Amino acid sequence: MITALRHFLVDSWLGRVIALMVFVSFVVLGGTFFGLGGGMAGLGGDTVVQVGAHKITPAEFQKAIQNQVASVLQQTGGSAEFLKTPQGRQEIGHTALRSLILVHEGELAGRRNGLNPGDETIRGVVFAMPDFQDPSGRFDPQKMEAVLGRNNMSHQDLTQEVRRMLYGSATLLAFGKTVQPPAQELDWLMNYIGHGAVVDMVRLPFSLGEVSAQPTDGQLKRYYQNHLWQFRQPEYRHARIVIMTAGSVAKTIQISDEDLQAAYRMKMQDPAEAARHNSPELRSIEVLAVTDEATAKSLAAAWRGGQSWAALQKQHPKAIPATLNDARLTDLPDEALGKAAFATPEGHVSAPVHTAAGWSVVHVLSVKPARHASFESLKDSLREDLANERATAMLKDRQRAFEEAVAGSVTLDKVPADIGAFPLEGSLDSHGNLPGGEPAPLPGDVALRQALIEQVFSQKKDEPPHVVTGPDGSAFAVLVDGVTPGRQEPYEAVQQAVKDAWLADARKHATEQRVTALYQQAKKEGLRQALAGQKEEAMLQKDEHFSRLQLRNDVPALILRAALEQKQGQTAMLQEGDGYWLVNVTGQYAESPTMMQAIRQRQASLIAGAYRNDLQETLGMSYTREAPPRHFNAALFSDVNERVLSMISGRLGQQ
Question: What are the TM regions of this chain, as residue ranges (predicted)?
Fold first, then answer.
């Protein structure tokens, strides 16, 4: 998925041209837009901001936002979590607009310095674009028309963006290409991530604590008096609710097959969408790396002869082993190694491969073929996506019909379902829980659920229902027709619950005392020795490995942090969830040198890229001081940004 998107945005000329609409997401001007001066004098509602004589329109800004989302999807491996928060949405819009500004500032700088790419230059660039060439390498006008049509670009758009690309290359992109990160910085980073911790640890749940005696009635009554809130019945309200959301409206919308086919074609032409639904070939492999070709040939012959990977490691202790599960070609750190791994049939062993770090032999364990999503496989999700897109626009149109229906139905039983409204009925407390304690099945996200609960508990009993506008344009009406006041449960009615709570607290306290004693002993002689001969010894996990390169998800984050941050010989006592943990770091281990060399090369490239971006950003900021952006229309910015991201969120299923 990431490879496909990167190929489109980086490896193809057309991708570079389109990417220049938003430039590079990492190259930003910094700060906020409060520095944009001039107000909105002389501008209509069709300009987001002005750079020199150029006015950035909502349409141009919309394209920038769409490309910025594609860029972030590439960086996050297809995850669209950033669209779920207002902060994430604002950052997308700000970055897209800042990048647009920088593109136009580069153009202005080029013009100020006498750069003026002529028609012949632009024509030469266009004719040289591989996307517009036939198999023989000649420019194909029909292919160009087809590609431009798929990307909603005209000849004028292409000419304009090629000219901006040339300006950007001359005034910004070429700077910092020879920058290299300091060796000391890479050494520190490799040392930091190249060593893992060896840990002994034990988890002791609260329930292990032993209580020597049962509580007396007096103790239970004191516990009850000190914890009254634990034994109180909350107020419950019975309510009838009718809700209309974009999702409920979407269920009433019919989508034609023609629209579905068109949506499928657009999705497959969109690099971000195609990357989400199509996947390259994946391979699981075992690798043994050695320093010389002769040893590699011996390994390959023995491996093909039936010897196991584990046996070969014992015979060649200096060989460096590595495994990769479901790896893409781009996941392999060495190009030659990748070619061999993806050319070797499943179940076979490759010939020795000469890599940057020496010689390697690859055993291909399994192959998962590349996957391409068909129209039939996406048909249902396409129908849902299109319905959600249209529902967002229709929600406001149907709100008037919803208000009229609520006004004509005092008991909320005459609201028609065909407008996209649906009813709910039941009792709940102020936390949104049913009388049994489980959450009430309220629709929507946390914000809508909270709005519904607040309305139920602020509205008077039997008050006539009225329409309330909820989050994301949703609407609902509430009728509270029953109230059961909260009450304190008498001690006699909850005596068993009080006893259970008392015993749970006593067990936790006993466990805490026991763990504290073990902790004090472990600080002196180590956790393994402190537990030797003790009943908790069977629960000890010995020689567990923790690495910053492969973070474990089978332990809580607090424990993971303690394992990686403590010094060797230290023991920590931690409370997490319903238990206590003792974590003792007993040693360190070094990661594979072959893997670390590949990571070093990759990090050197990333850090150099970051330095180049910093240099380009500084240069871009100097351009903005020369020609400051003017007349920022904050209201139009927010409106376009929210509308476009809501549409994208609907397509990605993030609403």
Answer: 13-36
Q: Is the pLDDT of residue 572 over 80?
A: yes
3-state secondary structure of 194: coil
**Strand 195-205 to 353-355 pairing:** unpaired
- Look at the pTM and tell me if it is higher than 0.85: no
pLDDT score, position 239: 96
The continuous run of DSSP H or E covering 430 comes out as: none
Looking at residue 133, the DSSP 8-state letter turns out to be: B
Supply the mean pLDDT for the chain.
Answer: 84
pLDDT digits (tens, 9 = 90+) for 290-311: 889 999 999 999 999 988 888 8
Amino acid at 231: F
In order of 131, 152, 161, 441, the CA distances from 145 in angstroms are 11, 10, 16, 52
What's the pLDDT score for residue 75? 66
Sorted by sequence, the CB contacts under 8 Å of residue 92 that are 6+ apart come out as 65, 68, 69, 72, 82, 83, 641, 645
Distance CA(34)–CA(543), nearest Å, equals 55
Count of alpha carbons within 13 Å of 610, Cβ hemisphere only?
8
Nearest Cα to Cα of residue 351 among 339, 340, 367:
340
**What is the DSSP track for 1-15?**
-HHHHHIIIIISHHH
- Distance of alpha carbon 251 from alpha carbon 420, whole angstroms: 7
* Amino acid at site 285: I
Q: Is the pLDDT of residue 153 over 80?
A: no
**Residue, of 83 and 194, whose pLDDT is higher:** 194
Phi, psi of 200 (to 5 degrees): -100, 135
Contact 276, 2 (CB under 8 A): no
Higher pLDDT, 77 or 587: 587
Rounded CA Rg of the chain: 32
pLDDT of 96-116, one tens digit each?
Answer: 888 888 778 877 877 777 777
Report H helices in 81-214.
86-112, 119-128, 141-150, 155-168, 183-193
- In angstroms, the CA 198 to CA 552 distance is 13
The pLDDT assigned to 45 comes to 64
Instruction: Locate 468 and state its tokens.
Output: 């309330």
Residue 29 structure tokens: 């001007």
Query: End-to-end alpha-carbon separation of the chain, Å?
Result: 22
